[in-house]
TrEMBL record:
Highest taxon, organism lineage: Bacteria
Biased composition (Polar residues): 106-121
Region (Disordered): 63-88, 106-129
A GO molecular-function annotation: DNA-binding transcription activator activity
Keywords: DNA-binding, DNA-directed RNA polymerase, Nucleotidyltransferase, Sigma factor, Transcription, Transcription regulation, Transferase
Keyword Zinc appears in the UniProt entry: no
Span of domain RNA polymerase sigma factor 54 core-binding: 126-320
Name of the protein this chain belongs to: RNA polymerase sigma-54 factor
InterPro entries: RNA_pol_sigma_54 (IPR000394), RNA_pol_sigma_54_core-bd (IPR007046), RNA_pol_sigma_54_DNA-bd (IPR007634), RpoN_core-bd_sf (IPR038709)
Length: 494
């Protein structure tokens, strides 16, 4: 095959390293970004925490406020150092370059293990807050170690506890546990396993290690032996629990020969019992939400402010930056200059992130003023394209900004994506937000008659009377999304 040379012209989009960093920081949540800042502080000596607790970026604090003018004397030393080397360091890298192509790497990015070397002075509760959560098995074993039992019963108890599910119920029957222990314990009777199980059921939380709901509720009901309706309640749980679950109060009243008032008191008593005792021991990790922006009304004007307290304030280390021109060797000078440029690009990316976040949040608030004034029912339909067109950005950028970003409002904390919803046409030719429709359904369900709840067809008819044409299956979809049970399960006496 003959070799030859050919020239081709083409175009392609390539992002600069600065743009890649800015996009990556833009889509991070507040907690992830805080972790990213700590990693960068460990890897770059030219960046440090601002002890003066000033914000690391100077951007508008609200919609109507302006940035404060900085004094030239505050950065005179830094500007002097910058002027000496900025001519040799490009302001931006070319689009087809990497960090190491132009500069030597200043440091290796740290990993999560670097946090082990940090000084957590004053944080005496650090270990307890970062310890793994206690499971239901751990909680029961801790009580078992404090209980006086024979070695044989303790071995049976351990086998039972291993079969406890997170909701507190046993995954297998006592008979299956007895069969699995028969080969290990001589002359083991099923009565021994049952006796140990009954004893474990009185551990905290009461009702654990039960086989089914009836068994769990009966164990918890023992604490109300002195209640005047104890026998009637025990009878309903023991024999008529399916009728109670289906809310067939007419049939239940006829079979138990109880009047409506007595049945109401019994239902109130049963509602004090916990059908999922294991839920009292939460083994999951707690998720904390830190709002990125705050919305408040000042002098009849809704204002948006960034939550600058959510992230640690950072600044350039002036001592190290001044060494760029006084370094003993050229390698040291290059290292300092490289680190300084990376630190400035990082701070510029943070500033760009905050400016974009504030701009998008301000746009959302301006378009959803009725929500802040009147509530969810006044929510207007809005999609990503609406905000992107108003702020002059791409829809993908708006999607990154609104993902895992939260807004603190007088009505609570909401994710920015909460304010985006599709629309439904009204009879008058207008549009209604799906979020507003869900709020209307929730309000109608809250105000419905207790003995005769509204069906999905009835809810659709009520909305149609208000000019909102919604199909029954759409009402059912919205109702299920809000975890509202169907009408037959919402029937109640009280």
């Amino acid at each position: 095959m003959k070799q030859s040379l050919q020239l081709k012209l083409g175009q392609q989009l390539t992002m600069t390293p600065q743009l890649q960093q800015a996009i990556r920081l833009l889509q991070l949540s507040t907690l992830d970004l805080k972790h990213e800042i700590h990693e960068f502080l460990e890897s770059n000596p030219l960046l440090e925490l601002d002890d003066d607790e000033q914000a690391y970026v100077d951007i508008p604090a609200s919609i109507e406020s302006k940035s404060a003018v900085e004094s030239p004397a505050d950065h005179s030393e830094e500007e002097r150092v910058d002027s000496e080397w900025t001519e040799s360091i490009p302001e931006e890298l070319s689009i087809d370059s990497n960090w190491d192509d132009t500069y030597q790497s200043s440091a290796t990015a740290g990993d999560t293990n670097n946090f082990d070397n940090q000084n957590f002075e004053g944080d005496s509760d650090f270990e307890s807050r970062n310890a793994p959560a206690e499971s239901i098995q751990d909680h029961l074993i801790w009580q078992l170690n404090l209980t006086h039992m024979s070695d044989r019963d303790i071995e049976i108890a351990y086998a039972i506890i291993e079969c406890v599910q997170p909701d507190g119920y046993l995954s297998i029957s006592p008979e299956d546990i007895w069969e699995s222990l028969s080969s290990e314990l001589d002359d083991l009777d099923i009565e021994e396993v049952t006796a140990v199980q009954h004893r474990l059921q009185r551990f905290d939380p009461v009702g654990v290690c039960s086989i089914d709901l009836r068994d769990c509720l009966l164990v918890q009901l023992e604490a109300f032996r002195d209640h005047p309706l104890y026998k009637s309640t025990h009878n309903i749980i023991n024999h008529y629990l399916p009728l109670l679950g289906s809310r067939d109060f007419t049939q239940l009243s006829r079979k138990t020969r109880l009047k409506e008032e007595a049945l109401k008191d019994i239902i109130l008593l049963i509602q004090q019992l916990n059908p999922r005792p294991g839920s009292a021991i939460d083994a999951g990790d707690t998720d904390y939400v830190i709002p990125d922006v705050t919305v408040r009304k000042k002098q009849d004007v809704w204002q948006v402010e960034l939550n600058n307290d959510a992230l640690p304030p950072i600044k350039i280390n002036e001592t190290y930056s001044a060494m760029a021109s006084t370094a003993a060797t050229s390698e040291d000078a290059t290292y300092i200059k490289t680190s300084l440029q990376e630190a400035k690009w990082f701070m510029k990316s943070l500033q760009s992130r905050n400016e974009t976040l504030l701009k998008v949040a301000s746009c959302i608030v301006s378009r959803q003023i009725d929500f802040f004034e009147l509530g969810e029912e006044a929510m207007k339909p809005m999609v990503l394209h609406d905000v992107a067109e108003e702020v002059g950005m791409h829809e993908s950028t708006i999607s990154r900004v609104t993902t895992q970003k939260f807004m603190h409002t007088p009505k609570g904390i909401f994710e920015l994506k909460y304010f985006f919803s599709s629309h439904v046409n009204t009879a008058s030719g207008g549009e209604c937000s799906s979020t507003a429709i869900r709020a209307m359904i929730k309000k109608l369900v809250a105000e419905e008659p207790a003995k005769k709840p509204l069906s999905d067809n009835k809810l659709a008819a009520v909305l149609a009377d208000q000019g909102i044409q919604v199909a029954r299956r759409t009402v059912a979809k919205y109702r299920e999304a809000m975890n509202i049970p169907p009408s037959n399960e919402r029937k109640r006496l009280i």
